[in-house]
UniProtKB/TrEMBL annotation:
GO (cellular component) term, any one: cell outer membrane
A Pfam cross-reference name: Acid_phosphat_B
PANTHER family registered for this protein in UniProt: ACID PHOSPHATASE-LIKE PROTEIN
Annotated signal peptide: 1-29
Protein name: 5'-nucleotidase, lipoprotein e(P4) family
Superkingdom of source: Bacteria
Protein species of origin: Pedobacter insulae
Keyword rRNA-binding: no
Protein backbone atom coordinates (compact mmCIF):
# COMPACT_ATOMS: atom_id res chain seq x y z
CA UNK A 1 0.00 0.00 0.00
CA UNK A 2 2.77 2.45 0.93
CA UNK A 3 4.65 1.58 -2.29
CA UNK A 4 1.58 2.36 -4.39
CA UNK A 5 1.13 5.67 -2.55
CA UNK A 6 4.77 6.56 -3.30
CA UNK A 7 4.36 5.72 -7.00
CA UNK A 8 1.18 7.83 -7.16
CA UNK A 9 2.96 10.79 -5.53
CA UNK A 10 5.85 10.48 -7.95
CA UNK A 11 3.46 10.46 -10.93
CA UNK A 12 1.62 13.53 -9.62
CA UNK A 13 4.94 15.35 -9.07
CA UNK A 14 6.07 14.65 -12.64
CA UNK A 15 2.69 15.74 -14.00
CA UNK A 16 2.82 19.01 -12.08
CA UNK A 17 6.35 19.62 -13.29
CA UNK A 18 5.32 19.15 -16.92
CA UNK A 19 2.30 21.41 -16.56
CA UNK A 20 4.27 24.16 -14.90
CA UNK A 21 7.19 23.97 -17.34
CA UNK A 22 6.66 26.19 -20.41
CA UNK A 23 6.05 24.11 -23.50
CA UNK A 24 8.55 26.12 -25.59
CA UNK A 25 11.21 25.62 -22.93
CA UNK A 26 10.47 21.92 -22.76
CA UNK A 27 10.74 21.60 -26.53
CA UNK A 28 13.98 23.53 -26.49
CA UNK A 29 15.38 21.38 -23.69
CA UNK A 30 14.59 18.20 -25.59
CA UNK A 31 15.83 19.48 -28.95
CA UNK A 32 19.36 18.50 -30.03
CA UNK A 33 21.90 21.04 -31.20
CA UNK A 34 20.78 22.86 -34.37
CA UNK A 35 17.36 21.15 -34.13
CA UNK A 36 17.86 20.21 -37.78
CA UNK A 37 17.48 16.46 -37.38
CA UNK A 38 14.56 16.39 -39.80
CA UNK A 39 16.50 18.42 -42.35
CA UNK A 40 19.38 15.96 -42.34
CA UNK A 41 17.06 12.96 -42.45
CA UNK A 42 15.16 14.54 -45.35
CA UNK A 43 18.35 14.84 -47.36
CA UNK A 44 19.48 11.33 -46.47
CA UNK A 45 16.23 9.42 -46.90
CA UNK A 46 13.59 11.24 -48.92
CA UNK A 47 12.76 10.63 -52.55
CA UNK A 48 11.83 14.30 -52.75
CA UNK A 49 15.42 15.38 -52.13
CA UNK A 50 16.69 13.08 -54.87
CA UNK A 51 13.97 14.26 -57.23
CA UNK A 52 14.88 17.92 -56.68
CA UNK A 53 18.57 17.21 -57.25
CA UNK A 54 17.81 15.30 -60.46
CA UNK A 55 15.47 18.09 -61.52
CA UNK A 56 18.20 20.69 -61.02
CA UNK A 57 20.71 18.76 -63.08
CA UNK A 58 18.15 17.98 -65.78
CA UNK A 59 17.61 21.74 -66.12
CA UNK A 60 21.37 22.15 -66.19
CA UNK A 61 21.67 19.72 -69.09
CA UNK A 62 18.95 21.49 -71.10
CA UNK A 63 20.44 24.91 -70.37
CA UNK A 64 23.92 23.74 -71.31
CA UNK A 65 22.72 22.46 -74.66
CA UNK A 66 21.09 25.81 -75.39
CA UNK A 67 24.08 27.82 -74.23
CA UNK A 68 26.40 25.85 -76.50
CA UNK A 69 24.49 27.11 -79.52
CA UNK A 70 25.03 30.70 -78.45
CA UNK A 71 28.77 30.71 -77.69
CA UNK A 72 31.10 31.43 -80.62
CA UNK A 73 33.81 33.81 -79.41
CA UNK A 74 36.74 31.41 -79.52
CA UNK A 75 37.10 30.91 -75.76
CA UNK A 76 36.76 27.38 -74.37
CA UNK A 77 33.54 26.66 -72.49
CA UNK A 78 33.14 25.69 -68.86
CA UNK A 79 30.72 25.37 -65.99
CA UNK A 80 31.46 26.42 -62.41
CA UNK A 81 30.20 24.25 -59.59
CA UNK A 82 30.37 24.47 -55.83
CA UNK A 83 31.47 21.29 -54.05
CA UNK A 84 29.62 20.76 -50.76
CA UNK A 85 25.93 19.84 -51.18
CA UNK A 86 26.32 20.58 -54.91
CA UNK A 87 28.44 17.66 -56.07
CA UNK A 88 29.40 16.06 -52.73
CA UNK A 89 26.91 15.05 -50.03
CA UNK A 90 28.11 15.85 -46.50
CA UNK A 91 24.97 14.86 -44.62
CA UNK A 92 26.85 12.13 -42.66
CA UNK A 93 29.00 14.88 -41.15
CA UNK A 94 25.90 16.87 -40.18
CA UNK A 95 24.42 13.76 -38.59
CA UNK A 96 27.65 13.20 -36.68
CA UNK A 97 27.56 16.71 -35.22
CA UNK A 98 23.91 16.44 -34.21
CA UNK A 99 24.54 13.17 -32.40
CA UNK A 100 27.39 14.85 -30.52
CA UNK A 101 24.97 17.60 -29.47
CA UNK A 102 26.94 20.34 -31.19
CA UNK A 103 26.50 22.60 -34.18
CA UNK A 104 29.86 22.65 -35.94
CA UNK A 105 33.46 22.09 -34.94
CA UNK A 106 36.19 22.91 -37.50
CA UNK A 107 38.31 19.98 -36.31
CA UNK A 108 35.38 17.61 -36.88
CA UNK A 109 34.86 19.04 -40.36
CA UNK A 110 38.53 18.65 -41.27
CA UNK A 111 38.48 15.07 -39.99
CA UNK A 112 35.43 14.35 -42.16
CA UNK A 113 36.86 15.90 -45.34
CA UNK A 114 40.20 14.13 -44.79
CA UNK A 115 38.38 10.80 -45.11
CA UNK A 116 37.46 11.67 -48.72
CA UNK A 117 34.39 9.43 -48.47
CA UNK A 118 31.55 11.84 -49.26
CA UNK A 119 29.09 10.43 -51.79
CA UNK A 120 27.77 12.26 -54.84
CA UNK A 121 24.76 14.54 -54.93
CA UNK A 122 22.20 12.79 -57.17
CA UNK A 123 22.60 13.77 -60.83
CA UNK A 124 25.85 15.71 -60.38
CA UNK A 125 28.27 13.16 -61.81
CA UNK A 126 26.09 12.32 -64.80
CA UNK A 127 25.65 15.99 -65.68
CA UNK A 128 29.34 16.85 -65.45
CA UNK A 129 30.25 13.79 -67.52
CA UNK A 130 27.73 14.99 -70.10
CA UNK A 131 29.37 18.44 -70.03
CA UNK A 132 32.77 16.83 -70.55
CA UNK A 133 31.41 14.92 -73.57
CA UNK A 134 30.55 18.31 -75.09
CA UNK A 135 34.09 19.58 -74.41
CA UNK A 136 32.86 21.76 -71.55
CA UNK A 137 35.31 21.85 -68.65
CA UNK A 138 34.31 21.93 -64.98
CA UNK A 139 35.79 24.28 -62.38
CA UNK A 140 35.20 23.39 -58.73
CA UNK A 141 35.03 26.65 -56.76
CA UNK A 142 34.69 25.81 -53.08
CA UNK A 143 35.14 27.43 -49.69
CA UNK A 144 36.97 24.40 -48.41
CA UNK A 145 40.36 25.50 -47.11
CA UNK A 146 43.83 24.89 -48.50
CA UNK A 147 44.52 22.18 -45.91
CA UNK A 148 41.59 20.25 -47.42
CA UNK A 149 42.81 20.57 -50.99
CA UNK A 150 44.42 17.15 -51.41
CA UNK A 151 41.60 15.24 -49.73
CA UNK A 152 38.98 17.11 -51.78
CA UNK A 153 40.73 16.17 -55.02
CA UNK A 154 40.99 12.58 -53.82
CA UNK A 155 37.25 12.47 -53.08
CA UNK A 156 36.33 13.92 -56.48
CA UNK A 157 38.75 11.63 -58.31
CA UNK A 158 37.56 8.55 -56.44
CA UNK A 159 34.02 9.20 -57.68
CA UNK A 160 35.15 9.85 -61.25
CA UNK A 161 34.36 13.55 -61.57
CA UNK A 162 35.84 15.13 -64.73
CA UNK A 163 38.58 17.78 -64.48
CA UNK A 164 39.33 16.81 -60.88
CA UNK A 165 42.87 18.18 -60.98
CA UNK A 166 45.02 21.05 -59.75
CA UNK A 167 44.02 23.31 -62.64
CA UNK A 168 40.29 23.09 -61.92
CA UNK A 169 39.96 23.14 -58.11
CA UNK A 170 39.85 26.60 -56.52
CA UNK A 171 39.65 26.58 -52.73
CA UNK A 172 39.36 29.43 -50.25
CA UNK A 173 42.57 31.30 -49.48
CA UNK A 174 41.87 34.71 -47.95
CA UNK A 175 38.11 35.21 -48.34
CA UNK A 176 34.92 33.20 -48.61
CA UNK A 177 33.71 35.59 -51.33
CA UNK A 178 34.04 33.54 -54.51
CA UNK A 179 33.76 36.45 -56.93
CA UNK A 180 37.51 36.85 -57.50
CA UNK A 181 37.85 33.15 -58.27
CA UNK A 182 34.92 33.28 -60.68
CA UNK A 183 36.44 36.29 -62.42
CA UNK A 184 39.73 34.42 -62.75
CA UNK A 185 37.95 31.65 -64.65
CA UNK A 186 36.07 34.20 -66.78
CA UNK A 187 39.35 35.65 -68.04
CA UNK A 188 39.98 32.58 -70.18
CA UNK A 189 36.63 30.77 -70.40
CA UNK A 190 33.01 31.21 -71.31
CA UNK A 191 31.12 30.33 -68.13
CA UNK A 192 27.94 28.77 -69.49
CA UNK A 193 26.27 28.17 -66.13
CA UNK A 194 26.92 27.88 -62.40
CA UNK A 195 25.67 25.22 -59.98
CA UNK A 196 25.44 25.67 -56.22
CA UNK A 197 23.36 25.18 -53.08
CA UNK A 198 23.95 28.72 -51.83
CA UNK A 199 23.06 31.99 -53.54
CA UNK A 200 26.59 33.29 -53.06
CA UNK A 201 27.74 30.44 -55.34
CA UNK A 202 26.31 32.50 -58.20
CA UNK A 203 27.08 36.12 -57.42
CA UNK A 204 28.30 38.21 -54.52
CA UNK A 205 25.32 40.54 -54.87
CA UNK A 206 23.54 38.06 -52.59
CA UNK A 207 23.96 38.31 -48.83
CA UNK A 208 25.79 41.61 -48.85
CA UNK A 209 25.02 43.49 -45.67
CA UNK A 210 21.72 45.34 -45.82
CA UNK A 211 20.45 43.48 -48.88
CA UNK A 212 17.09 41.70 -48.91
CA UNK A 213 17.78 38.21 -50.23
CA UNK A 214 14.26 37.70 -51.54
CA UNK A 215 14.36 40.98 -53.44
CA UNK A 216 17.76 40.09 -54.92
CA UNK A 217 16.40 36.75 -56.09
CA UNK A 218 13.30 38.36 -57.61
CA UNK A 219 15.48 40.78 -59.53
CA UNK A 220 17.25 37.95 -61.38
CA UNK A 221 14.50 35.34 -61.33
CA UNK A 222 14.91 34.71 -65.07
CA UNK A 223 18.41 33.27 -64.45
CA UNK A 224 17.37 30.41 -62.14
CA UNK A 225 17.13 27.13 -63.99
CA UNK A 226 18.96 28.74 -66.90
CA UNK A 227 22.26 30.32 -65.83
CA UNK A 228 21.98 29.58 -62.10
CA UNK A 229 21.23 25.96 -61.11
CA UNK A 230 20.27 25.76 -57.43
CA UNK A 231 20.51 22.50 -55.44
CA UNK A 232 18.42 21.89 -52.29
CA UNK A 233 20.22 22.14 -48.94
CA UNK A 234 18.02 22.43 -45.83
CA UNK A 235 20.88 21.69 -43.42
CA UNK A 236 22.98 24.88 -43.41
CA UNK A 237 23.90 27.94 -45.46
CA UNK A 238 24.15 31.71 -45.65
CA UNK A 239 20.36 31.95 -45.35
CA UNK A 240 20.69 31.14 -41.65
CA UNK A 241 23.03 33.99 -40.75
CA UNK A 242 20.44 36.83 -40.85
CA UNK A 243 18.25 34.94 -38.39
CA UNK A 244 20.55 35.74 -35.47
CA UNK A 245 21.44 38.91 -33.62
CA UNK A 246 24.14 39.12 -31.00
CA UNK A 247 27.58 37.62 -30.54
CA UNK A 248 28.83 34.35 -29.03
CA UNK A 249 25.32 32.90 -28.99
CA UNK A 250 24.78 29.51 -27.38
CA UNK A 251 22.88 26.77 -29.17
CA UNK A 252 19.94 27.55 -26.89
CA UNK A 253 20.06 31.22 -27.85
CA UNK A 254 20.07 30.35 -31.55
CA UNK A 255 17.22 27.87 -31.12
CA UNK A 256 15.13 30.53 -29.38
CA UNK A 257 15.84 33.11 -32.07
CA UNK A 258 14.89 30.62 -34.78
CA UNK A 259 11.64 29.93 -32.94
CA UNK A 260 10.97 33.67 -32.62
CA UNK A 261 11.46 34.17 -36.36
CA UNK A 262 8.80 31.64 -37.33
CA UNK A 263 5.65 33.03 -38.96
CA UNK A 264 2.44 31.87 -37.34
CA UNK A 265 -1.15 32.98 -37.01
Amino acid sequence: MQLCRMKRCTFIWILLLLVSFPIASLAQALTPARDFTNAVLWQQTSGEYRALAFQAYNFARLSLKEALWEQANGKPNCVIVDVDETVLDNSPFQGHEIKKGISFLPEDWHKWTSLATADTVPGALAFLKFAASKKVETFYVTNREEVEYTATLKNLQRLGFPNADDAHLLVKTTTSDKEARRQKVLEKYNVLLLCGDNLSDFSNVFYREGKNTKEQVDAVQHLFGVKFILLPNPMYGDWEKPLYSGEKLSEGDKAKQRLDRLKSY
